Input
Amino acid sequence: MEILIIANSPGEIAGWSYPIIREIKKQDPEIKTTMMLLPCNFSSGRELEVARSLPGIDRVFPVKQTLSTLWKGKRDIFEEKSAILHLGGDLFFPAMFAAKFKLPVFIYEWAQKKWDNLLAGYFARDEKNRQLLLGRGIAEEKIHIVGEILADAVNYRAEDCAPVEKGKELTIAIMPGSRFREAFSLLPLFAGVGEKIKERFPGTKFYMPVSPFIDREKFFGSFPLQPDEKAGGTGVSLKDDSTLVTDKGVEIGITFQSHGVMKASDFIITIPGTTTGEAGALGTPCLSILPLNRPELIPFVGLIGLLDHLPLIGKPIKAKIMLYIAGKGNHLLSQPNLRAGREVIPEMLDVVDPDKIFARILPFLENKDKRDKIREDLNSIYSSHRGSAEKIVRKLIESAKCISSEKH
Output
């Protein structure tokens, strides 16, 4: 038997896939696990390497191999009894895999009616997501509410991490992104906020959890950093292999075990994306910042994202479009807020500098009750989602077992 996972973005590969693979091997170690990668506008360039490092993964198809398999692959490339779980990427691809290889394909969270007749079913994270799928014309009997995969992912990861020393003073994690360009353009800004925090709360400990999608050699070779003229911040240098230091002497611990630090932190400063969902599932308060200082650098999907590759005029046009979108009204940017339909964690969509950011988070740093209220709200959103991986894997195995050799 074989379970195939289709994914494309860093969050799906390192986050959502991890508990699924772990649960497959827990239910039956003999089941082969395969990941097929798809093209992604948010690619960090290290998706293949990270996918291959996942515990329990048996094989990984790079993007070209996934596409060539779809184009000219034979049925015997997969085990006779197989099923596919689609976690991210255009739904055209899982639909075509279903049509070509006659395999049951299940989609997590999303649907397009035009592909529905080719697909076996859908996994919804909650009732709200189920209603979205129903609204897209999906039959009720094809939808299975399983919970939020991320809740399993981060808690499994946190359990695997070494314990973090926690004192009475504040512990702050700064997480400027999972892609090299965004992380290193924002690190001086976030470090500048750290200097402001240190002035007000001298005992504060700072950590920078480094994404697995950032190459370690490239990471250590990129210092010293200077602040972006449009964003401000502070210079950041490498003190040693485990510590960064700012121009004002504030030390920031480097860690590659992100989830243990995230769970132990009193507050996280980050950007919209998977990290906000991970923080939410761990119950850790955070600020989600989408800086508009350089709107042309903001990753985006679809035609707007393709402007990144248009010489000379692409980025200026994209900057104007992004500012227009940002100015259209109130936006919920972070995953916990999108799940709740309201602001649970604070957000900023603005041209920012360290002073603005510090002013936004100061009330939460000064008042533990405010942080505890966020923790309580986050737990109410995510606590019911534990066990989602088990439900998904059970359904995939059940569907794979039902495949008849006569179909092939």
